[in-house]
Design a protein that fits this description.
It is built from 15 helices and 20 strands. The protein is an alpha/beta fold. Helix 1 links the parallel strand 1 and strand 2. Helix 12 packs parallel to helix 15. The chain is globular.
Length: 512
């Protein structure tokens, strides 16, 4: 395993215009998982471009106090790279980051990494049947492009009037300023999502005062985290099958949630009751309890775990403000009721840009349009993986690919689909594949129909799961074993295909 103090650097790329078979954008779970499986499949002609100076994706960027995964470590890891040495059931950020670095070393991925390489444009050349990729350090040509940018890669900062005038420090949870000491300060936390729930208990004990600006309360459940040291670790080390069985068990637990989320939201009433009991037990003040009680259906927004969030909010140095933010002044935040909340630091726990991720402006398809232009605020894909008009482009964790489990499970399924497509393309001499628009639309229509009665669509709230037009572009409408079955083998009859020597925009042909 790679020690926590060890960092990974990439070889220097001296070629101004290198050619490669597969180019992967992003070195988080998605990009590294793709690279590892390419290696296992005997494909060595690939590179992974990462804009940061380190691998890890969201687990390299999100280093805020208390950063922790809300999926058990046994499941939030690659099935083909088990780690018997997890120290907690729910791993903290440093341990996940160490795991990814160890995977890169153990699977021989390091020589394929190009760090500090920011992709500025990726354009499909239909005549040459290649992707032209421009970075801040040179240009590449690739037959296959894999987008592993990740949905949580671009922080969202609200456009608050006067924010630039604030005299104190302002930073997002995904860009934590570790050089800034919050001890003794008047600190604001804007937002109540998963990151804020983890940050608040860490800030409250050291801050002079803390003000939580809450637009909507979050459903909080008791946290089942516990140490994995002692007999669990010894068992996993000595009997690897035991860890595989534990992973299967946890996977089934996650699957058991699907009927309530997708088909019958009434089945989630027990979890809602558990959340209310947790709140009632930890918060005695009836006024604060009312402010923290969600009025929307459990699961409509992302629920989370914490045993420390509510007790922190109940402390005398904390104020929960539910009035909307009107403006920011040099000395603090003014809310809709006219009150000025004097502050020294503002921490943004305001999530990420999912529908307007700048990465969507980078990838340009066959007709010259970017992903952002093709989608026009309504992201669509086939199996969340391929997008009509973008030949030889595969997206990880794309629209409607998310199953209600570890997203590493989703990534592995998509990578299996990519490898199946590559094998068939190679065997049949294909230069490109492009999902047929009618196949993609049929998938989108089926998704929309099957999600109509899901808790995300009828739960009575808005969330980042929905587009501005109200479409659920996030979830796959069913069990993850169904998604895995559908992505086990790519059916190239569903694609417009080209072979060497055929003209541009050929007559539609199906795979033989």
């Amino acid at each position: 395993m790679v020690s926590s103090a060890q960092s990974i650097s990439s070889p220097v790329d001296d070629d101004a215009r290198a050619k490669v078979h597969v180019l992967v954008i992003g070195a988080g779970f998605g990009g590294l998982g793709t690279a590892m499986k390419l290696k296992q499949a005997g494909i060595d002609d690939f590179v992974v471009l990462e804009r940061a100076s380190e691998i890890g994706g969201t687990w390299q960027v999100n280093t805020y106090p208390g950063a922790q995964c809300d999926i058990p470590s046994i499941l939030y890891s690659f099935s083909f790279a088990p780690n018997p040495n997890w120290t907690r059931l729910y791993p903290l950020q440093p341990e996940i980051h160490d795991y990814l670095r160890a995977c890169a070393e153990d699977f021989g991925i390091v020589p394929h990494l190009r760090l500090n390489h920011e992709v500025r444009e990726a354009t499909w050349d239909d005549a040459a049947q290649v992707w032209h990729v421009a970075t801040n350090q040179g240009r590449w040509e690739a037959r296959i492009l894999v987008g592993a940018m990740g949905p949580f890669s671009e922080p969202a900062v609200p456009d608050l009037p006067g924010l630039d005038s604030f005299d104190g420090a302002v930073f997002h949870s995904a860009a934590w300023d570790h050089g800034h000491d919050l001890a003794g300060e008047r600190v604001a936390v804007v937002g109540t999502g998963a990151s804020a729930v983890q940050i608040v208990p860490r800030i409250q004990p050291i801050a002079r005062s803390m003000t939580l600006f809450q637009r909507t309360p979050t459903w909080i459940l008791p946290h089942p985290d516990q140490p994995m040291t002692g007999w669990p670790r010894r068992l996993f080390e000595r009997i690897p099958l035991s860890q595989r069985l534990a992973r299967t068990g946890l996977d089934l637990v996650q699957e058991a949630m699907v009927p309530g989320f997708v088909y019958r939201p009434a089945l989630l009433k027990g979890l809602a009751a558990l959340g209310r009991a947790h709140l009632n037990r930890q918060v005695r003040d009836p006024e604060l309890r009312r402010a923290l009680t969600p009025t929307y259906a459990f699961g409509c927004k992302r629920p989370t775990f914490s045993n420390a969030y509510y007790p922190a909010l109940a402390q005398p140095n904390v104020d929960v403000v539910t009035a909307g933010i009107r403006e920011v002044r040099p000395g603090g935040i003014v809310t809709a009721d006219g009150a000025l909340h004097e502050l020294d630091t503002i921490v943004m726990g305001t999530g990420f840009r999912l529908t307007d991720n700048p990465a969507f402006d980078v990838v340009r398809g066959r007709d010259g349009r970017t992903l952002a232009e093709a989608w026009n605020g309504n992201a669509r894909a086939y199996l969340g993986t391929t997008i009509s008009g973008f030949p030889n482009f595969f997206m990880l964790l794309g629209p409607n690919s998310v199953t209600y489990t570890s997203q590493v499970v989703t990534i592995e399924a998509q990578v299996e689909y990519i490898l199946s497509a590559l094998r068939q393309m190679d065997a049949q001499g294909m230069t490109s594949i492009d999902i047929r628009p009618e196949v993609q639309q049929a998938f989108v229509d089926d998704v929309d129909r099957r999600l109509q009665k899901s808790v995300w669509n009828v739960g009575g709230c808005t969330s980042y799961y929905l587009s501005g037009a109200g479409r659920n572009f996030t979830f796959y409408p069913g069990f993850n074993h169904s998604f895995r079955a559908r992505t086990r083998r790519a059916d190239l009859a569903q694609y417009v295909t080209r072979r060497a020597g055929t003209p541009s925009h050929p007559t539609v042909r199906t795979a033989g």
